[in-house]
Amino acid sequence: MPELPDVEVARRRLDHALRGATITRAHSADRRILRPKPPRALSCATEGRTVRDVTRRGKWLKILLDDGGRFFSHLGMTGWWVERDANAPPERSERARIDVVREDGRTASARYLDARRFGRLIVADRDIDECSALGPDPLADGIDATALAATLAKSSRPIKDVIMDQTILAGVGNILATEALWHARIDPRSRSNALTRADVGRLVRGLGKAIGEELDVRMAAGTDEWRDIFAVYGHAGQRCPRCGSTIARVVIGGRTTAFCKTCQVRRGTPPKQSRSRSNKRAIRSRPL
DNA sequence: CTCTATGTTTAATT
DNA sequence: GAATTAAACATAGA
């Protein structure tokens, strides 16, 4: 459940479980998720160290250790952290665990769950490029509307595509982008460089609203259960909660996108449809 | 069986 | 060469 608000919830949970505590055991044998590959990479770099703090940038989590070492966690599509008793049995899809002992002697255990295994756990002795190359984080850094307007003016790609670019805004995923654009009354197919300065202002507020609402719900819920609190995401075919029109569905940048054609205005000229739908290409041959 | 999925990277096509 | 698209990754649920 990984977009900025979800990752922030995971950060708070990990910070609560690990900060100030000493790692007694860390383990992951998943060679797809763990980097570097050796199964002992995680334990060697972390056992015996104390956790300084847990920070977040976009969708990346960083656990900083007292010796300067660190490990990064990206939740991918289905990654999640839970806190359990040290002696609790493994959860379903548990891919890693970090056991700690606090100064008062109490123990705790953070478990990493990830059904699809698109997530990553990266052990390093310095910051990694994946995390350093990120753009400003809307929650941690805030969004400078003027700076964002200047950035958006440089691209003619669909606006939804651009705000999901992690080097432009860190942490905005398919849900946030979809919801924010609905709040801002902007058609997600609009060309980035065709937005007006007022559009950008509404977009910034829309992002803040989408992030804030999602974070509030997650924090208040006190549960990890999935809850549909969205205005349009996943609601294609249903009615727009603002104007009552039917929510449309398109694909932008390979991602399903829901929006209201009536109250979300389209900026810029639609791309000239390339005429070649004819070649259906039915390659079914199995390479033997 | 078919289709879809909160993300990112890489190969293929235009 | 830049821009756009599809595929790939691995798994669960409708």
Structure characterization notes:
- This protein has 288 residues and is α+β, with helices and mostly antiparallel strands.
- The radius of gyration is 21 Å and the shape is elongated.
- A five-stranded mixed β-sheet has the order 2-9-5-4-3. A four-stranded antiparallel β-sheet has the order 1-7-8-6.
- The two termini are 39 Å apart.
- Helix 6 crosses helix 7.
- It has seven helices and eleven strands.
- A hairpin with a 5-residue loop joins strand 7 and strand 8.
- The C terminus is likely disordered.
- It binds a DNA duplex (14 and 14 nucleotides) through helix 6.
Distance between the termini: 39 Å
The count of β-strands is: 11
Strand order of the largest sheet: 2-9-5-4-3
State the shape.
Answer: elongated
Task: State the helix count.
Answer: 7
Helix content: 25-40%
SS content category: alpha+beta
Mean of residue pLDDT values: 92
How would you sum up the major sheet?
A: 5 strands, mixed
User: Runs with pLDDT <50, length 5+?
Assistant: 275-288
Order of H and E elements: HEEHEEEEEEEHHHHHEE
Radius of gyration: 21 Å
Beta-strand percent range = 15-25%
Write the layout of secondary structure elements.
Layout lengths: L3 H15 L3 E6 L6 E2 L5 H6 L4 E7 L2 E6 L4 E5 L4 E6 L9 E8 L5 E8 L5 E5 L4 H4 L12 H8 L6 H5 L10 H10 L13 H25 L26 E5 L2 E5 L29
Parallel strand pairs: 2-9
Antiparallel strand pairs: 1-7, 3-4, 4-5, 5-9, 6-8, 7-8, 10-11
The chain binds a DNA duplex (14 and 14 nucleotides) through helix 6.
